[in-house]
């Protein structure tokens, strides 16, 4: 069997809009995120191994991801992995994809799908926390969906923040670096993106303006969070699926343990947003912020991997 190997170039060719459209099509086709198989965690010497299966009538797949926190110190990527895509009815392998590149495209696409329904067409001020691959991916995905008038990049490493600012300027955005100890930049933001490995809140949630949207993607464990309880308790909260968020999202589970949030306070999942089932998500509903939390789910990888395959293999 000559199994096609689809690398980063094949995956990037699909582009942010193609990935967002693939997710939207999966949801409009009846996929229920609440029924997606759970992620499996395996402790490994270098960190953690994640197994993420998913299936539809047409295709099945599994992503095998390594999360190695010590890798960057050795010049290696923190995220590694592969994705095996199979035909749904026969379970015959169709292709093997670069798992890290797939994640770099898929995660921003999930955020961008939420942003389609949570923000207006023009973002006056975008504040982006993070300077790694997900920060670059989210910048590209947001620019594919919205016009950004001003960008502030906040990262722990100044030269990496400057590099991302320069990339944004090449894309035509008025961008500048912020300072980690001056996270009050969020007070003038209408979109805040959190794309970091931080296990503790990045800013004071009381500063987020009513009507702004906050998106957090950096953590998927119950003991880590990028936003504080103020963000969660003040906001209309949306998730990929309630089941996944209430199992893995420390951004929600920690406020729940504090009594600042309840599971029933979740306003909707990604399918609700995509179907327009929650009027509170409309950008005109400016009474409070909106918060979208993603932890990453197998159905998202499957939808994007299948779209990459259709795009790349005749």
Automatic annotation (TrEMBL):
Pfam families: OCD_Mu_crystall. It comes from the Bacteria. This is Ornithine cyclodeaminase family protein.
């Amino acid at each position: 069997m000559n199994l096609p190997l689809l690398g980063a170039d094949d995956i990037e060719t699909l582009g942010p809009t193609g990935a967002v459209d693939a997710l939207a099509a999966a949801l409009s086709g009846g996929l229920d995120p609440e029924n997606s198989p759970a992620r499996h965690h395996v402790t490994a010497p270098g960190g953690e191994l994640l197994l993420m299966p998913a299936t539809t009538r047409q295709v099945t797949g599994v992503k095998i991801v390594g999360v190695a926190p010590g890798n960057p110190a050795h010049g290696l990527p923190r995220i590694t992995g592969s994705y095996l895509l199979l035909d749904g009815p026969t379970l015959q392998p169709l292709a093997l994809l670069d798992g890290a590149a797939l994640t770099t495209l898929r995660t921003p696409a999930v955020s961008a799908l939420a942003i389609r329904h949570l923000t207006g067409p023009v973002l006056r001020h975008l504040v982006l926390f993070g300077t790694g691959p997900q920060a670059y991916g989210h910048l590209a995905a947001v620019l594919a969906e919205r016009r950004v008038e001003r960008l502030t990049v906040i990262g722990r490493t100044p030269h990496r923040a400057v590099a991302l600012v320069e990339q944004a300027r090449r894309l035509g955005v008025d961008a500048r670096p912020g300072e980690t100890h001056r996270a009050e930049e969020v007070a003038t933001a209408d979109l805040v993106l959190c794309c970091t490995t931080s296990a503790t809140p990045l800013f004071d949630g009381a500063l987020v303006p009513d009507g702004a949207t906050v998106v957090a993607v950096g953590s998927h464990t119950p003991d880590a969070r990028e936003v504080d309880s103020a963000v969660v308790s003040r906001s209309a909260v949306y998730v990929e699926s309630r089941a996944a968020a209430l199992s893995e999202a420390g951004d929600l589970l920690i406020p729940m343990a504090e009594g600042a949030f309840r599971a029933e306070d979740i306003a909707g999942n990604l399918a609700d947003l995509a179907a327009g089932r929650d009027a509170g998500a409309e950008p005109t509903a400016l009474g409070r912020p909106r918060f979208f939390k993603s932890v990453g789910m197998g159905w998202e990888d499957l939808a994007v991997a299948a779209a990459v395959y259709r795009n790349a293999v005749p």
